[in-house]
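User: Second chain of the day. Same drill as before.
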Amino acid sequence: MEAKRTTVNGIEFAYLEQGEGPLALLMHGFPMSPATYRHLMPALAAAGYRAVAPHLRGFAPSGLAPDGSYAIADLVADMNGLHDALGGDGDAVLVGHDFSAPAAWGAAQDAGRWAKAVICDVPPFAVFGPMVLTPRGTDALSHFWFFQTAVAEQVVAADDLAYLDWIYRKFTADGFDATEDLKHAKDALRAPENLAAALALYRTAFPPDRFGTPEWAQEHAAVWGAPPNCPTLNLFGSEDPSFVITDEALAAVRATLPAGSHAAVVPGAGHVGLVERPAEVNRLVLAFLAGEL
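Assistant: Same format as last time:
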């Protein structure tokens, strides 16, 4: 696994790379890092892909956004720009998890750029909105609202970013050891400017004065509300408190996806199935990419 850098949209992106073949671009979420893909990268490399996992804009050692913008549309532009900068072609595949999932839904609308997409732990916008805007949804995702406050940086940074320990405990299944993930996540967010950039993702996407309004919904639908233009695998954890994926919810997800797509629940996984249940996630991802699902 090699550490490399490239510049896209005025930002120097640090990334890990393994394997040769068509590009497989792997984008992490919050509070995560490319280490989220430490199990999937070698599996993709063995299957004949060039697996590339960048640090998001604002997450060290990638650079900060020069214009200070951390909107979902910026992450979409980063994904498509990285595709070009890394020599991707029509055989490239895209994987997005957590906060990169909405951006992956948006990037996958770019016809001809991505052959397939795998989107983890966030449903399409048509399903996401109604699930978040419920009493249970607002409680489960309370960090969305807390991150809007002025005290958030102080609280999250305290005691060597102990808040991140708490959020991993909340969103992973009982018994998961997050030591490895937390080490890399804290290294990416320990500097005040990096933590501020990460919180800006939430402050931009869920502003308290507009969140849930028709204008907010229209703005997000314009970025990631349309169906993807490539077959897509949408994965969820059975123990994820973020979204309770019932049979009805899974059917609603499948109804939004194009031909050749699939949606599945990973038993025993919380919100980070990529590291909680890597064998099953790898099996599903590789089977989907091979056309076996």
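The chain has a mean pLDDT of 96.

User: Great, on to the next one.
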